Amino acid sequence: MSNFAALDDKQLPAHQLAASLIDLACARGVDRNRLLRGTGIFYEDIRSGKHRLSASQLLRLMANARQLMPGKDAAFLLGRRLFPGAHTASANLLMHCRDLGDALKLLGLVKMQFCPFIYGQLHIYNQRCYWLLDDAFGCAGEFQFVLEAYCTALAAASRQLFAQRVPFHFDFPFPRPRHIQEYEENLGIRLRFNQPLLCISFEQKYLRQPCIQFSQTLKWHALRQLRAQRSKINMGFLEAVKRQLQQHRNMALSELAEVFNISPATLKRRLKQHGVSFSQLQDEVNRQQALFLLHVKGLNNEAIAAEMAFNDIPNFRRAFKRWTGSTPSQARLGWKLIDFSG
Amino acid sequence: MNYSLLPLHSKRIALVLCTALSALLLSFSHGEIKAWQVISWLDVVGEGGIALLTLVWLFFLFVSRPPGRVTDLLVLGLSCFMFSALLDLMDEFVRHQSGYWLSLVESIPAPIGMVLMTWALYQWHQEQLTLNQQLRRREAQSRQHHQVDWVTRLYGADYLREQLTKHLDEGVSSLSVLMLDIDNFDQFNRRYGDQEGDRLLRELSELILMNIRQTDLACRYAGDRFIVLLPETQRPQAVTLAGQILESVRHFAFKTRESGEAVFHTLSCALVSAVASDQAEALLDRLNRQLELGRGAG
């Protein structure tokens, strides 16, 4: 059995996410039947917690909630409720982690419960940590909602776990939204918009920020409980594909299909279901790496080209332009990154 | 739509129905039904439309206004009007011999209804002035009901930004802006539930309203963060005012629903005064930073 779920696979144990959102919307005067319309979710199933949900069902639920709930704060309220939620093994695992670095690692094991739509990858450079975020399922129009909930949950959870505010810096690719007040209130003032990379960054020393409830024994206990649940699914389909592409640059479609044990035609169809094509994904993965090397590490064209296994510079420049829409030098001028004076 | 006011109007609804019914009865009992061919359908549509719309107005009246003198007058006026409109409509279906007194009955209620409604609208105006007084400190000179926050019934961030921009554009001499944030609100929410959290927000917003002057404006900015606009206020005066709000919140014993135990809260606050050619966003940004800094130190 594979360890990832496609958009329509009813494999996610995210009842708590759904339940939180339903409670929240109903408390704001939204009719439950209207909220669940078109989602294929039955309230009884959520209550019993037996049937698993698919990503597309949850996304539909979010879309409904976003439209029906008054105000712009739905995602933020949801984010604040996500952790710890019910006291499940997943919540306990994070609750008793050693430090922030440990928590981010463990999050990979339990993210399907809290927020399956976004995955993060940690990069450390020059005393700073960069938690690069990416879409695990193809959330399309709901991505900003999901992202708002994810970032709020992260900020709120870290306040709980470490009993202090970790100074996270948030970089968002989209323009400054009208409801900026919710960002300020929930994420703090270190916010930047229209950024090339979607990431949360912080000083490396906070990686060792100890958790106030750290307990090795309780952590192991939670891990054992999680293993007993035998849920192998720990990533979304797009996440699985992108991780493969990151490891094997210039992998062909047929090779990728082989890894997933499906035919190339099936793989193509699956990708289309998630709203992307194979070449788009490849470009996206390359784009993220190139921008990271350029903006964060501040490498010059030769170094980036070498790192990304390009034979010559003109070739790299052409490719870079295709990924980002501008040449490397324009990109350097455009974003005088990464100064954190603000 | 919210129909919660409807049950309060059972008597008035009965009155409207009785009026409509009596119009129909009166008309049928004093004439004979016309042949199908002579009915003028254009008139039926026109006069029927008037009667129907009157009923729609009555419906909106019932779902939007609580019982009271002004409501009674409006219902009475509209009922009279509807009575005439219905008789007029029935004329198209029923032929009357004893024309004279019936035409009197048909035409007199309409002007009476109009007079009643005019009087009611004047009363409504008086009522609105009273309500405006009640809304002071919650509302500046403009009303935008879609910008009112669902939980606290204060205006939200959009309204605040508009008002702030207006003040800054007018170049008012001294404007101070106060930002208030409840400490450990998340913790309270986790412990007592979100419903209690919402109730706390409501009660605290009332408390803030009680502590500010008639000319000030309180808004809910986001989450547990409030902003108070203090026009024509120098910094020392604003500091005093902020101190008074903090003090009264500190002494406020919020009783939880379950056990009735008293929970006390403190606020963090930031205060900035507008400088010449200040922009709303820049000012709010300064406020946020100051609040964050204060938090870090505390």
Plain-language structure description:
The complex is a heterodimer of chains A (342) and B (298). Chain A has 342 residues and is of the alpha/beta class. Chain A has two domains: 4-229, Alpha-Beta Complex (H-NOX domain), CATH 3.90.1520; 248-334, Arc Repressor Mutant, subunit A (Orthogonal Bundle), CATH 1.10.10. Chain A contains 17 helices and seven strands. Chain A has helices at 15-27, 32-36, 43-48, 55-68, 74-82, 89-95, 100-114, 143-162, 180-187, 216-229, 237-247, 253-260, 264-273, 278-296, 301-307, 313-324, 328-334; strands at 4-5, 118-125, 128-135, 169-171, 191-192, 199-203, 235-236. In chain A, strand 4, helix 9 (180-187) and strand 5 form a beta-alpha-beta unit. Chain A is globular, with a radius of gyration of 20 Å. Chain A starts with a strand and ends in an 8-residue tail after the last helix. The relative contact order of chain A is 0.12. Residues 337-342 of chain A have low confidence and may be disordered. Chain B is of the alpha+beta class and 298 residues long. Chain B has two domains: 6-135, no CATH class; 145-297, Reverse transcriptase/Diguanylate cyclase domain (Alpha-Beta Plaits). Helices cover 59% and strands 13% of the residues of chain B. Chain B is built from ten helices and eight strands. In chain B, the strands form three sheets. Chain B has a four-stranded antiparallel sheet with strand order 4-5-3-8, sandwiched between helices. A two-stranded antiparallel sheet of chain B has the order 1-2. In chain B, strand 6 and strand 7 form a beta hairpin. In chain B, helix 3 (69-90) packs antiparallel against helix 5 and helix 8 (194-211) packs across helix 9. Chain B is elongated, with a radius of gyration of 28 Å. The A-B interface holds A 23-24, 27-29, 70-71, 73, 76, 80-81, 156, 159-160, 165, 178-179, 181-182, 184-186, 188-189 and B 149-150, 156-158, 181, 186, 189, 194-195, 198, 221-225, 284-285, 288-289, 292, 295-296.
